[in-house]
Amino acid sequence: MSGVTAAASDGRERPASLRRAVRAGKRIGLLPGAALAVLAIILLSALLAPLLAGHDPQELDPVSRLMPPDADHWFGTDGLGRDVFARTLYGGRVSLLVGSGVAVATTFFGLLIGMIAGFLRLADSIIMRVMDGLMAIPGILLAAALLAVSRPGLLTVMVAISVPEIPRMVRLVRSLVLSLREETYIEAAILGGARLPRLLGRHILPNILPPTVVQATFSFAMAILLESYLSLLGAGIPPAVPSWGNIITDAATTVRIAFWAIGWPGLFVAATVLCVNILGDRLRDHLDPRLAGTGRR
Fold first, then answer.
1. Per-residue pLDDT reduced to its tens digit, 184-194
2. First and final CA of the chain: distance in angstroms?
């Protein structure tokens, strides 16, 4: 009897769980849900690279150079006989770290500088002229110039990519603060004697955080692309540390005879950037009250 009851209970619970999953999927949307799943797979494969790779990403095997994908080398080998699958997984660790670091740095400094520029008129003219000067230089050229006068390394690349991205965040934050500064509750807080740090931290920051989080997702995607571009210019992550960018660069000379060596890391870059952009668009639609409830997917 208890077994029948348990079976009946399981029968009632499973459809309820399925209905909850369907409702959650409808709220997220089919395309963003697929993007989230792909991005989760890429992230997990990078985190679990030591367990999944099966080969040392830096191990040279001239006898096995330029081999097509097989049971031992799932993504084939490159011009030096290194396993492309292992290098792609380990390279994902570096490229995703670069994207995350740039997104965090861009958001932090963009919020700090943008709030000051938007609230203090005297500082606004000085800060924005500096930002305009930085934006006048193409991001890839500015990052390459910064790397040319500094010691190559992971941290250096993250700083060099962050500098061109910060002005975009500053301009966004400044525009949001300028619109909020005229609100009644802000004027009431000023009349109530609220100091500037409290005013910015308690009244301004919570209201501008959602759009900046959305912008941070695009900074993440742009950082991964810029790291690849810099590697193609010979100014990216040092070759001793595999990243998607320098894997593509190393394989560029053999693309005609071993397209898999450049195709797989290129596919990972494209999939990551596409998925992050899709999720950023969906997040923007969700957080923007003007788009909420419009049925956009």
1. 777 777 777 66
2. 47
